[in-house]
Automatic annotation (TrEMBL):
It is found in: Cell inner membrane. GO terms for molecular function: fucose:proton symporter activity. This is Fucose permease. GO terms for cellular component: plasma membrane. It comes from Alteromonas naphthalenivorans. The chain crosses the membrane at residues 12-32, 52-73, 80-97, 103-122, 143-166, 197-217, 249-267, 287-304, 311-329, 335-358, 370-391, 397-416.
């Protein structure tokens, strides 16, 4: 019997645990932000496309800051990148206070951009940092384990939105708001924006505490010394990465994966309101159920990966998710809502699995490669805009064809990796990963 490679060694355990807190932290931010599309649409009386700029600012920042994060990681260390990311994210979250005082949509978008920029640096650093904390054969499983705590944060983020933000929205319609006096309208909007501001400022305080903890803990490897010893040749790394078909296809798959995930969760509230009636609070409850399913499924998928090759599981779950999206378009009722919640089970393994598979065998190009995969989060900025345009023209139900198409592309990447391995018999997960590495090296 083959001895299984441990996911995390004892000397790496404490740093690993602390990094899982960071995974949870950006989960809180991302999923507390998802309901803001509906919130700002109501507060500022905007179309779905205009309010979707929330996600454009958030995920657009991920795209813009990933390369600077790669420079930080390559020149200094992953730990330095984590600290810079935490600091910027805290600063952006604190900006929600002056934004609430000015009551300007643009100011909120700027605060989101700064916060998400910090989270981009944090994620670009933390993901490969976790993968480096042990044997490369167990890297994808280790990343899935760390990412399993991300849904803990997403659940808490949705909980904060559902308890502190959504219940405090004034139920006045757009017509009723337009009939209010300017003083009365400012009072209503001010109270709503204060409700938005409070959880973000609280999160900023928590991020500062995490920053202190990360700064004080000893790093398992002196990356700073190792990085300075290497020649920083970004052009050569980029050339190698672009020529690597396996990595290049992985970046595209991550783009569509994040796009699909953002589409599914961003417009959950609108879909629920259309399918079964109710208000924003009930839609927020369904989003919370989705996050709970996502959380449980992340741990289940991590366990399943001991016995099933990650790319095969990725392909199957992506096809199931595409099918569930189709069910939603055909049954805009309780059946569609159940399908919507079920998609989160499929989503749970996608990001870390694509990430781990795409980075296999990159060696010294891993840090820049990690930045490219984080830049692919731009899908979360672009795809919701397409879906929002469809919502404004044809309605929320048919708009879920957008994430369905994204899921099909992700399934294609799973199939591509399976063919790359070309393993004719059933073997252990670690053996399959080793074969993948050898195949990439041979190419």
């Amino acid at each position: 019997m083959q001895t299984k490679t441990p996911i995390v060694s004892r000397d790496m355990l404490l740093p690993f645990i602390l990094l899982t807190v960071c995974f949870a932290a950006w989960g809180v931010a991302a999923n507390m932000t998802d309901p803001l599309v509906k919130v700002f649409s109501k507060i500022f009386t905007m179309s779905s496309l205009q309010s979707a700029l929330v996600q454009f600012a958030y995920y657009g920042a991920y795209f813009c800051l990933a390369i600077p994060a790669a420079f930080i990681n390559k020149r200094y260390s992953y730990k330095t990148g984590v600290l810079v990311g935490l600091g910027c994210a805290a600063a952006g979250a604190f900006l929600f206070y002056p934004a609430s005082q000015t009551m300007t949509y643009g100011f909120f978008l700027m605060a989101l951009f700064v916060m998400a920029g910090g989270l981009s640096i944090l994620e670009t650093s933390a993901n490969p940092y976790v993968m480096a904390m042990g044997n490369e054969q167990s890297a994808t499983r280790r990343l899935n384990l760390a990412q399993a705590f991300n849904p803990v944060g997403t659940n808490f983020g949705v909980f904060l939105a559902a308890t502190l933000i959504l219940p405090n929205l004034n139920q006045a319609s757009a017509e009723e708001r337009s009939a209010m006096s300017m003083t009365e309208l400012k009072s209503v909007i001010g109270a709503e924006l204060d409700a938005v501001m409070i959880p973000y400022v609280a999160m900023a305080c928590v991020l500062l505490l995490v920053w202190v903890a990360v700064a004080l803990i000893k790093t398992p490897v002196d990356e700073a010394t190792a990085s300075k010893a290497d020649d920083i040749d970004i052009a050569a790394s980029l050339k190698r990465l672009v020529a690597n078909k396996h990595y290049r296809f992985g970046v595209m798959a991550q783009f569509f994966n994040v796009g699909a995930q953002t589409c599914v969760w961003t417009f959950t509230i609108q879909y629920v309101m259309k399918a079964i009636g109710g208000d924003e609070v009930q839609g927020g409850d369904v989003l919370q159920y989705s996050m709970i399913v996502f959380l449980i499924s992340r741990f289940v998928m991590t366990w399943v990966m001991q016995y099933l090759y990650p790319a095969r599981l990725l392909m199957v779950m992506s096809l199931v998710a595409a099918g569930l999206c189709f069910v939603m378009t055909q049954s805009p009722n309780i059946v569609g809502v159940v399908a919507l919640i079920s998609i989160s089970a499929c989503l749970s393994l996608m990001f870390p699995t694509i990430y781990g598979i795409a980075l296999q065998g990159l060696g010294k190009d891993t840090k820049l490669g990690a930045a490219g995969l984080v830049m692919a989060i731009l899908g979360g900025a672009i795809m919701p805009l397409f879906q929002a345009a469809i919502i404004d023209s044809a309605g929320i139900v048919i708009s879920y064809i957008v994430p369905a198409v994204c899921f099909i592309f992700v399934a294609g990447y799973g199939l591509f990796d399976i063919k790359a391995v070309k393993s004719p018999q059933k073997v252990s997960i670690d053996d399959l990963k080793t074969n993948t590495l050898k195949t990439n090296m041979a190419k």
